[in-house]
Amino acid sequence: MLNQIRGIHHVTSMARDASENNRFFTGKLGLRRVKKTVNFDAPDVYHLYYGDGQGTPGSVMTYFPFPNIGKGRRGAGEVGTTVFSVPAGSLGYWEQRLAEQGVTGLSRETSFGENRLRFDGPDGDGFALVEIADDGRAPWGEGGVPTDEAIRGFHSASLRLRDGGATEELLKFMGYEPVDTSGNVKRLAIGDGNGADVIDIETVPGANFADLGAGSVHHIAFAVENRAKQLEVRKALIDTGHHVTPVIDRDYFWAIYFRTPGGVLFEVATNEPGFDRDEDAAHLGEALKLPTQHAHLRPYLEQHLQPLGA
Questions:
Q1: Which CATH fold topology does 8-304 show?
Q2: Which residue of 11, 26, 68, 296 has the fewest C-beta atoms within 10 A of its own C-beta?
Q3: What's the pLDDT tens digit per position in 68-97?
Q4: VOC domain: from which residue to which, for each copy (predicted)?
Q5: CA 267 and chain centroid, separation
Q6: Residue 309: its pLDDT value, please?
Q7: b/e per residue, 44-57, with b = 16+ CB within 10 A?
Q8: The Cα angle at residue 289 between residues 56 and 34, in degrees rounded to 5
Q9: Across all residues in the chain, what is the average pLDDT?
């Protein structure tokens, strides 16, 4: 069993409209935009990152907003719900805030003894807020949400699978341990992780497979401290039969990818070097940052990429 993985690093999804996406996460959820860059493979498309004040691994939601993308279809073989941690007693504030701002899909529930509020993202993305009493992570304090209610980072993500058995065994190999079961959902967690250290497996036999599109999670990334630990994880995964990519430099972290038995794309990303490698921490996410291979496109991109606002 591996011990290098500390929890979720980031979650990357698809969107239709970059400006709407930016307003939702910075304005409605009060997160900080910590990086404004472009897709490595499609440089005419943004890659937007939102999180806490520093873009701490375990807090970062990222998006590829493709202007002409169709709407995704929910189903098996995908990340179903991405869950953020908020302080105990704050769901009333959030329910009122999100309702006043026109957010859809609001519903309260209790799951694994935790109070949570479900809601939809701008493209029908599945999200929830869960009350956690002892989450000591510092929130972004300048997003228009009072500190006592602000999002601390991720709590968990759910994987919606036809058969969760093989993926459960993979997660156990990655260092997760089963902690509870509720109906068709099995919960696994990493002890002493980064706070974003819970994965739920929702088993839905016979469900249609998901179709990737706006509102779909493209991949979920797991955090390791550095490149040395990442190489250890990569070797162990390859040794157990997984097809893992070479290490890829993503400017703000190094990444490896592999497809899970249930169909979900997993990434293992390093905590280093971080989002302040190319701009001052006080001004994260303000300027358009380009990968070196796309630097020559700056004049074109600055003219053609959709303005985001603040």
A1: 2,3-Dihydroxybiphenyl 1,2-Dioxygenase; domain 1 (3.10.180)
A2: 68
A3: 999 999 999 999 999 999 999 999 999 999
A4: 7-132, 153-271
A5: 11
A6: 74
A7: ebbbbbbbbbbbbb
A8: 25
A9: 97
